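wait is this the right file?? whatever heres the structure
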């Protein structure tokens, strides 16, 4: 077991929050805050400079938001883990962060012990989620599964577009589809627009009818 401290970068667009988190973590034994940033672009610069073990990442930030910054960190510095700490616990935010590669997701109601556990878990290759987030993930996993992949799909649909149409036929909202497929809601909207254009659907009712006829549900 190493005696090296856990090296953490704090990222939040509010200076008071950054300073508070830094002070909080520095009171925790075995944790070293190597820097802080107020937006995702600056966070990437500091990750390149300091190579922390974990980034504690806010989501809603200027210049480059936390979801995009998380994706960049995971792509460019795969050895660096990301734990999201945000006020948002909606399906779209959770799905977007996890799809980007976040290894933990906490709300700002979390205390020092919970934050520290999530950081250590992420550095060790594990995941820890806020109880409310874990409940949403469990709910998403219990939703009806997407149809199995088919060798060929009608009208030039991609497998993901077919999955989205199947979810629409089940009455799922865009947010529910995003959570079920672990993608951002904006990505779902893009798939819907592309699918509607390919099948000639003008609304969700026509799309649902098409999905049922084609056995996509």
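ok assuming it is, sequence goes like this
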């Amino acid at each position: 077991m190493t005696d090296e401290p856990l090296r953490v970068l704090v990222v939040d667009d509010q200076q008071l929050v950054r300073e508070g988190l830094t002070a909080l973590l520095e009171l925790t034994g075995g944790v070293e805050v190597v820097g802080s940033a107020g937006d995702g672009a600056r966070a990437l610069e500091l990750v390149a400079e300091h190579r922390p073990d974990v980034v504690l990442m806010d989501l809603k930030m200027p210049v480059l938001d936390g979801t995009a910054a998380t994706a960049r960190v995971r792509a460019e510095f795969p050895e660096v883990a990301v734990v999201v700490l945000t006020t948002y616990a909606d399906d779209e935010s959770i799905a977007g962060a996890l799809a980007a590669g976040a290894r933990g997701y906490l709300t700002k109601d979390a205390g020092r012990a919970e934050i520290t556990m999530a950081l250590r878990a992420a550095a060790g290759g594990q995941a820890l989620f806020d109880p409310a987030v874990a409940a949403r993930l469990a709910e998403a996993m219990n939703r009806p599964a997407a149809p199995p992949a088919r060798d060929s799909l009608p009208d030039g649909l991609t497998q993901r577009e077919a999955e989205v149409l199947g979810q629409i036929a089940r009455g799922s909202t865009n947010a529910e589809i995003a959570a079920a497929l672990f993608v951002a809601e904006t990505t779902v909207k893009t798939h819907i627009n592309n699918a509607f254009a390919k099948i000639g659907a003008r609304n969700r009712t026509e799309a649902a009818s098409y999905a049922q006829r084609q056995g996509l549900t």
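The mean pLDDT is 88. so i think its the right one actually
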